[in-house]
Amino acid sequence: MSDPIDFCKKRFKHLKKQMEENELDMVWLTSGAGMGSRIQRLTGSTSGAAIIIPIDGNPAHFVYSVDYNSTLDESWLPVKLLKNRAEAGPAITGYTNEYLKEGSKIGVNLGSVNHTSYEYYSKELKGELVDISGNIIPEVWFGFLPGEIKFQKAVSRLADIGCAAVRESMRPGITETELAAEANYAMQRNGAETFSFQTIVSTGERSAYSHGWPTPRKLKDGELCLVDLGPTIDGYAADETRTYLLGSDSKKEKMLEAMDKSVQAVIDAVKPGASCQELDAISRKVLEDHGFSDYPHSLGHPLSGFPTPMLSKTSKHILKPGMVFTVEPGIYLPGYGGVRMEENVLVTEDGYEQLTRGPRLI
Question: What distance in Å separates the CA atoms of residue 289 and residue 265, rounded to the nearest whole number?
């Protein structure tokens, strides 16, 4: 049975093929916003000051001393020690220049390179820095390879467990922090390693926050309880939101029903070739038809560190098999309460598979 490292190696081969097709002599991946999980999907480790991949030659995984021992255990690439930041520039340029000559093309994720580093490496490296953020990065890290989705399914089940723990623990007087603790315990007891963000539990009027946080506030009868959580295993991360009503309230029940319909309308339209901008519009139209105003965030985002697809009013992304993303519209009524429901969805060859399965309405 394949493990995560096997898929790292397959992604590495895909990257090398892209290098050949784009006539790159080297790829240099640097750590930065969003790159930790992508580096893990290539090497097995989230650590890495730089990943150097020559088209012909030995790759190297450069890390600082604080991460050296763990990276030796996790990464399948040869690991190189950087003793301090002052040494990093000369060590990386010295290694890369062994494989370069004047006129070489070096693919870089420039969005993760600050101005100072860019100026230094532009001067010290023999080759030309070429941004690969808009082509090779989304091509190699588009989503899940065949057979890899089993890891995402496993972590999605943990998200269902966490949401169920909150639902089953709801009662008048329980605090948001207690409910978050119940969710976290249930997920970790069943195998979650870490969380990609702090578990959100917000109740009553605080459920109208797009991104709340757990407080000592006590849940009351007739109030909404929003839970949003993100368990991880081996760097694969789920992201599920549910909103539950304690007791009954006709207006809040209508909010929940409208949200359920909005989410389902989007999911029903998921297939290869679907426009992410159009999916976003579907969600907003359903809510509008039910008398609710527009929500202030995008419809959804990719999971597990992949850069695409983004689902928003301005997205240009088109769905392709293997992509995994969230669907999470919202209704937010300040001073009253809010509802958000979030599913994790896989694009298949002929449609979709919904990965998070916990009930949206109870």
Answer: 12
Q: Give me 192's structure tokens.
A: 């979650």
Banded model confidence at residue 77, pLDDT cuts 50, 70, 90:
very high
Average pLDDT over residues 297-317: 96
Rounded Cα gap, residues 315 and 301, in angstroms:
11
Residue from 67, 95, 70, 102 nearest 83 by CA: 67
Cα separation of 259 and 17, whole Å? 43
Q: Which two tokens stand for residue 14?
A: 């895909």
Helical H segments across the chain, by residue range: 4-21, 35-43, 65-74, 85-97, 115-124, 136-140, 149-169, 176-189, 250-268, 276-289
Lowest mean pLDDT among 45-54, 235-244, 260-269: 45-54
Within 8 A by CB and 6+ apart from 1, the residues are none
Point out which residues pair with 182 in neighbouring strands. none
| 60, β-bridge pairs | 52
CB 257 within 8 A of CB 179: no
Whole-number Å distance between alpha carbons of 348 and 358: 21
Return the closest-CA partner of residue 150 out of 361, 12, 353.
353
Which amino acid is residue 283, in one-letter code? S
